[in-house]
Structure formats: structure tokens, C-alpha cells
Amino acid sequence: MTERSNAARWVPLAIALALGALLLAGVLISRRGNREALPSPLIGKPAPAFALPVLHEPQRIVRSQDLRGAPYVLNVWGSWCPACQDEHPVLTRFAETKRVRVVGFNWKDEREDALRWLEQFGNPYWLVIADYEGKTAIDWGIYGAPETFLVDADGIVRWKHVGPLTEAVVRDELLPALEQVEQAGAGLRL
């Protein structure tokens, strides 16, 4: 065997090792990095308009303008989403404070599955709207569940989190963003 053919046998292994190293570096960076590495282009802009059925009353349609007048948290979830089940106790505790309306955005789910999931794990939502086909989710830039948005009283998106809510995310990100929204709203009323 020639020296050249010996070297050629090692090329695929070297490529695989290089790709593995890149993948590992990406995972390590994402673990210690900010989950907002890809910030939403919606921050500071009006929430996308929608007209969606209410999960529990499918004949009732809720429009984005119906939610104006007070801030709300929009939580994207699905019965098919394991991470949504992980975040559910945290979301429930947050919703129980009644500090802000928590609106569920049921995404690409079967109605019966979503209702059964809420029956099993509890319904922390003030209202649940359903995007069965996922078309409205595209306008919101949703690419996974769970995702959570904070929308102010004027319908402007003020905060977004990709992934499950944790106690730390609620304490360190959502509550400070909510305080800013509340202070800005109070300033307008003076």
C-alpha cells in the first residue's frame, strides 16, 4: 500500500472528528449563552393580527385587538410537546399570581388532545386560542414550542422567550419585563 492511500483512509475520520468538535462547541456555547441569541424581530413592534377560535368554545373567535387594553403573556404550547409539560408547573404558579393575563396559544394540535392535556395537567390560562393549522404561528415567528411572549396594553411585543419557562426565567426576565410594561403604562395614565 502506498503512503498516499494510507493517508486517504484517514480523511473521513478527520472530517468526522472536525464536525464532532464543531457540534460540541455549538452545544457548549448554546448552554452557556443567551437563549435570545436569535432575538425576535417583533420586539418593539405590534403583535401580529390574528382571528383564532377559542379552544373551549370553537364557535367563538378572538381577535388580537380584543386583547388590547391590558398586557398579556402569550404562551405557545401543544399536547405533543414534552417541554411544555416540563414548564407547566412554573407557568401555573406564575398564572396563579394573577398579575397579568396568561393566554394559551395552542399550536398545531388536535382539539380533543389539547382539551385532554389541560384536563390532565390543569388549565392555568385566562383564555386559550387555537392555531390548528399553524398559519398564525408563522406571523409570530414561532418555530417551536414552548415559546412565550409579553405583549403590552397597546399590543406591542415587549419580550420573548424560546424554550420552557423556568423559575429563573420568570424571576430574571419575565417579571422585570412586566415591571417595565406596567411602569410605562402607569406613566401614560398620569
TrEMBL record:
Keyword Methyltransferase: no
InterPro entries hit by this protein: Periplasmic_diS_OxRdtase_DsbE (IPR004799), Redoxin (IPR013740), Thioredoxin-like_sf (IPR036249), Thioredoxin_CS (IPR017937), Thioredoxin_domain (IPR013766), Thioredoxin_ResA/DsbE_sf (IPR050553)
GO BP of this protein: cytochrome complex assembly
Source organism: Vulcaniibacterium thermophilum
Membrane topology: Single-pass membrane protein
PANTHER family xref list: THIOL:DISULFIDE INTERCHANGE PROTEIN DSBE
Predominant location: membrane
Residue runs in coiled coils: none
Keyword GTP-binding: no
Highest taxon above the source species: Bacteria
Ranges of residues in domain Thioredoxin: 41-183
SUPFAM superfamilies per the UniProt record, alphabetical: Thioredoxin-like
Molecular-function annotations in GO: disulfide oxidoreductase activity
Gene3D superfamilies attached to this UniProt entry: Glutaredoxin
Organism classification: Bacteria, Pseudomonadati, Pseudomonadota, Gammaproteobacteria, Lysobacterales
Subcellular location: Cell inner membrane
Keywords, alphabetical: Cytochrome c-type biogenesis, Disulfide bond, Redox-active center
Family, as annotated: Belongs to the thioredoxin family. DsbE subfamily.
Record's protein name: Thiol:disulfide interchange protein
GO cellular component: outer membrane-bounded periplasmic space; plasma membrane
